[in-house]
Write a structure and sequence with these properties.
Layout (H helix, E strand, L loop, with lengths): L1 E4 L6 E3 L6 E3 L8 E9 L4 E6 L3 E14 L5 E5 L2 E5 L4 E5 L4 E9 L5 E2 L13 H16 L5 E5 L13 E7 L5 H8 L5 E2 L8 E5 L9 E7 L3 H15 L1 H18 L3 H22 L19
Helix pairs in contact: 3-5, 4-5
Amino acid sequence: MQIFRFDPEVSIPIDHFGSDFRIGRLTEEGTKGRVQVLHLGPGGMVGRHRTGLRQLFAVVSGSGQVSGNDGSYRVIRAGQAAVWEAGEEHDVRSDDGLVALCVEGTFEMQAVAVTKDIVVVDYDPAWPQWFEHVRAYLWPAVEKLACGIDHVGSTSVFGLAAKPIIDVDIVVADDAGVRPVIDALAPLGYRWVGDLGVDGRQAFDTPTHPTLPRHHLYLVVEGSKAHRDHVLLRDLLRADPDARRRYAELKRANVELAQGDIDVYVAAKAPFVAGLLTRARAELGLEPASYFVPDLPGEAPR
């Protein structure tokens, strides 16, 4: 079983033709199958059975618990979807009731994956070269639009253990530069997925490329809170070996805690990151900022 998000935080704003709404994409073009709406009242359930076809269960209101082959339950809320593969044992239950869209057939997901393999490894001296490879690939597409491309995130900090995925910021001078860069990246296969809940930081679904390392791509306005936070965190960790050590220990512990749930992994390290950013701002005499610390996603009892 996999879990995906399609809630407002991970949707993209649409303003064409004077529109004002957001799209939370679920599946790619070419989906073939049956679409149904399931209504579970309070105490309702879908009994445990084996799927005949790949199945998408997208909750649009209410909440419940879902399980897959391993029989363990996960809370699922509006804006989240479970996907079961053909032949997978599964069931659904809801204490308070829910409404969900169900797609059965052949489809590929466009929504943001919550469940994925999470691996934290020791620092690799090759990571700066990995970044340069990505930067060299992207720069020709944005050089007339952007101020620069920065290496951020944990792989930009010498000696810090990290997920071996390069974090990259394309930096533009002002808000007017955001849409042209989004449009310039589309032919390279970078699909804009909105701000993912971080104001001022646009994110992209990165395409699989035969010669590029795995990377996350973001677009930020120079001097914005999102841009500054990336730089502040990077520079503090570069300068403070004790903070690097504690952060690495926390990351490794959170891999075990998360058990493949990226929302849990991120939420579990958020208080530590918020503390580092608060400290960095104070040391530089910058105006204090508030940082949202999410609750750890709940887990239903087995």
